[in-house]
Specification:
Two copies of one chain form a homodimer. The first copy, chain A, is of the alpha+beta class. Chain A contains eleven helices and 15 strands. In chain A, strand 8, helix 5 (about 210-220) and strand 9 (about 235-240) form a beta-alpha-beta unit. At the A-B interface, helix 2, helix 8, helix 9, strand 13 and helix 11 of A face helix 2, helix 8, helix 9, strand 13 and helix 11 of B.
C-alpha cells in the first residue's frame, strides 16, 4: 500500500501538444503486462536528460548519452520494463542499438533520434525479438491522451502508476506540463531517477533544456532515497515541444523562466515523492530536513546518513520513538568536526533533543504520537551555519525484505 | 540462529594471569540478566584502546579517552548493558564519572584508573543507583576463569556469547590471549567495535600497546559490517598484563612481536567474525574480497558498498543469484573513473561476470548452488591495480526487521 498516494485520475492528466504515447504488451519478461512504451515527439522539440552516475550504467543509458550528444533532434523514446539491459557488456550495447534501429525504421528516422530506456532485472540479455515484435502494436496505440497508460507501461515493482500534470499561465498563454515516473527499489538517484519523463509545450531556447533538466532533477529526484542503491538505469528526460503561444523563454532567471521552472519543479517533486510513497514495502513517508549546516552539501550528507540507516528506518516502521538512532546516524555521517553539543532534533513539532542530549521536557508519548503518523518530518539542526537541505525517504519494513527476496521468482 | 557459531566451551577459555572478571545482575534495564561486568587488572599492565569515530560518541567513550590520556595506570574496567549512555549530553558524562568514582572507592583507586563502557538503548539516563548497588556482587564474583561469564555479561541482542582464547610460544614462554566481543546491530565499526576486549599476559613495551590495539582493530573489527550503522559506543581495549616469562617485546616488527601480533590478530578476527555470524537476523556469513584495485582504500570502498546494499543482502537471504545487484553496487561505490569493462565477478569458484558482462559460460544453477550455502565468498576483480582487501558481512532477513522494530518493546 503506497503512503497517501493513489492512481492518477485520467481526467486530470493533460495532453501535451506535440507528444503522443503508445503502449503495448510485448512479453519482455512476463506475458499480459504493459511493458513496452513509445513516446513520439513532434519535430522541433528541445529534449534534455540527466542519467545515473553509477559506473555500471546500463547499455540504454550509454546509448541515450551518445544520441543526445549527436544533437540531431530527438523524435522518439522507447521504454521497456522486465529487463534493465545492465551488466551486459558489449552485447547489451548492440541489443539496445538494434531496438533503436527497429523503431527508427518504422518512423523513417535516424536511430540517433531515438532515446532508449530499460528497467527490470540486471545481467540478463535483452530479448530484442519480442521488443521488435511489439513495436507495431505500441505505435498503433499512440495518442496524446496516453500519459496515464504510459505511467502504467513503465511500472515494475510499483504498486500504482505515477503521473502528474498541471497548467501554468506564461505571458498570457496556457502552458501544459505532464510527467510520469517509476520506482520502486534500487532508488537513491544520483543525477536522475529510474525513470522519470516530463513533457511540456513551453517554448524555450534549446540551450536551456539541459540546465532545466538538471535543475528539476536536483530539486526532486536527487532528493529522494528508498534503499540507498543507486540504479544502473536512472534516467530523467525533459521534453519541451515549443507548441505554446508565449514568446520564447531565453533565460530561466526571467519572470517567464521562473514561472515555468516553479511549475515544472512542482510536478517533478510530486513525481519524485510518489516514488518514495510507493517505495518497496513503504508504510511511512519521511521528510528529513537538516538545518544550520555550513553548506547544503553537508546538510544533504547528514540527511542521507539518517535516511539510509536501517536502524532508523526500522524504528519508523515500528512507530517506535527510538530517536537516539537518529543522533547516532548524524554522528557517523562523516562531518569530521561536528560538535554533538550543538545539535537539536525535532520530530514534527516535538523538540526531542537539545544540544546533543535529551530535551528535559521531552515526553515519550509525544514522540510516540508523531511516530504513529504516516507522514513525519525529522528536523535536525546542526547549529554551525545557515544552510539547509531536505531529503525524502520511507521506512524499512518486512515487505521490503519479502519483495526483494522474491523479486525474480 | 548464528551462522556456524556456537557458545564457547568454557574449558577452551584460558585465564590470563593478571586479569580477574566478575559479573552481576544489576537490573540496569531488565531484571534477571547479567548486565554488569567488572574487569580487574593487576598493577603494571599496559592498556590501549580504540574508540568509535561517531561524532555522537557516548559519554563512556569520552571518559575512556580522557582516562587513557591521563596515563595513570588502568586498573579496572566497568561495563554495563541495557543503556548506552549516548545522546545524553553533560548529564550523561556526570553519570559515567559517578560510576567510575563508585568503583574506584571499592578498589581504593583513583577514578581515572577505571575505564567505563556502556551498551544498550540510546538517549536514556544511565541508572547509576542500580549500577552502584550491583558493584559489590560483581566484585565478589571476580575470578580469573570468568571470561565466558564476561562474554555473557556484555550481550545485548546477541544470541550467543563470543569468546576466544589461544596460547602461543614466544621465546620459549607460553603466552595466553583471551578476548570477548558483542554485537549484534548498529555494527559498522570505524576504529573499533562495540564492544571488544582482549587480554594477554605478554610482556610488551607500554609504548607498543596503542599501535597494537590499532593494528588488531584494523585487521578485524574494522573489516566487519552488519547494517552500516556505526555505533556511538564502539570500544576495543587490549590489556597486556606483562606476567609472561619471555623477554619484553620492544618492537612489533621483531620475531617475537610478529608472533604475538599474528596470534592476537587470529583471536581478534574470530571475535569480529563472531559478531557478523551472530548479526541481527543473519542467516549467512559473507566474505567480500575485492582485488585488482589501485589501493586498499578503494578495495574497501567497493567491498563496503556491496556489503551495505540492502538489495544485495536480501538476495543473499533469498539464496537468489540476482548477481547484477552486486555489479550495480560496485558501480555506485564512488570510484569516479571505474571502467565497468574491466570488472570480473566470482561467487566462490563460479565465474559470474567477465569484463563487466555476463560470463557466457555462467549457468544460473551454478550461482544458485553457491547462494544456498551458509558461507559465501564474493570476489570482485577491479582490473586496475594490485591491491586487495576483505570485508565480512551477513545477509538482511525478515528477522533483522523484526528485531529492530521490536528492540525497545
Amino acid at each position: 500500500m503506497p503512503v497517501n498516494l493513489s492512481a492518477p485520475d485520467p481526467a486530470a492528466l493533460h495532453a501535451v501538444p506535440g507528444i503522443r504515447i503508445g503502449v503495448a504488451e510485448a512479453g519482455v519478461r512476463k506475458a499480459n503486462r504493459k511493458d513496452l512504451t513509445v513516446v513520439l515527439i513532434d519535430e522541433g522539440a528541445a529534449v534534455g536528460g540527466v542519467f545515473t552516475q553509477n559506473r555500471f550504467c546500463a547499455a540504454p543509458v550509454q546509448v541515450c548519452r551518445e544520441h543526445l550528444a549527436r544533437d540531431v533532434g530527438v523524435r522518439a523514446m522507447l521504454i521497456n520494463t522486465g529487463n534493465a539491459n545492465a551488466g551486459t557488456g558489449e552485447d547489451g550495447l548492440a541489443r539496445t542499438r538494434a531496438t533503436c534501429i527497429a523503431l527508427a525504421r518504422h518512423l523513417n528516422l535516424a536511430p540517433e533520434q531515438i532515446l532508449p530506456f530499460s528497467t527490470g532485472v540486471i545481467m540478463e540479455p535483452l530479448p530484442i525479438d519480442r521488443i521488435e515484435a511489439g513495436l507495431p502494436a505500441a505505435l498503433a496505440d499512440a495518442s496524446p491522451n496516453h500519459w496515464g497508460r504510459a505511467a502504467e507501461g513503465i511500472m515494475t515493482t510499483d504498486t500504482v502508476p505515477k503521473a502528474f500534470s498541471r497548467q501554468v499561465q506564461i505571458d498570457g498563454a496556457t502552458v501544459t506540463i505532464s510527467g510520469i515516473s517509476k520506482g520502486a527499489g534500487m532508488i537513491r538517484p544520483n543525477m536522475a531517477t529510474m525513470l522519470g519523463f516530463m513533457g511540456t509545450d513551453a517554448k524555450i531556447d534549446p540551450s536551456l533544456i539541459q540546465p532545466l533538466a538538471k535543475a528539476l532533477a536536483d530539486a526532486s529526484f536527487n532528493r529522494v532515497t528508498i534503499d540507498g542503491d543507486t540504479s544502473t538505469n536512472d534516467s530523467f528526460v525533459v521534453i519541451a515541444t515549443q507548441k505554446a503561444s508565449h514568446a520564447t523563454i531565453t533565460s530561466l532567471e526571467s519572470a517567464a523562466g521562473q514561472a515555468l521552472l516553479r511549475a515544472m519543479q512542482d510536478v517533478a517533486r510530486q513525481l519524485a515523492q510518489a516514488i518514495v510513497r510507493d517505495g518497496e514495502g513503504a508504510t511511512k513517508f519521511i521528510t528529513i530536513r537538516v538545518e544550520g549546516g555550513r553548506d547544503e552539501a553537508e546538510c544533504r550528507q547528514v540527511a542521507y546518513a539518517v535516511a539510509h540507516s536501517p536502524l532508523v528506518k526500522t524504528a519508523f516502521y515500528a512507530s517506535d520513538p527510538n530517536l537516539g538512532r537518529i543522533l547516532a546516524a548524524v554522528g557517523y555521517a562523516g562531518i569530521a568536526d561536528l560538535d554533538q553539543t550543538g545539535i537539536d532534533l525535532f520530530l514534527d513539532d516535538v523538540h526531542v533533543a537539545v544540544k546533543g542530549g535529551r530535551n528535559p521536557s521531552y515526553r515519550e508519548e509525544d514522540g510516540q504520537r508523531v511516530m504513529k503518523q504516516s507522514e513525519i518530518t525529522v528536523r535536525i539542526v546542526l547549529g554551525r551555519g545557515a544552510a539547509a537541505d531536505t531529503v525524502w525517504t520511507c521506512d524499512l519494513s518486512h515487505d521490503y525484505v519479502s519483495i526483494n527476496a522474491d523479486y525474480r521468482s
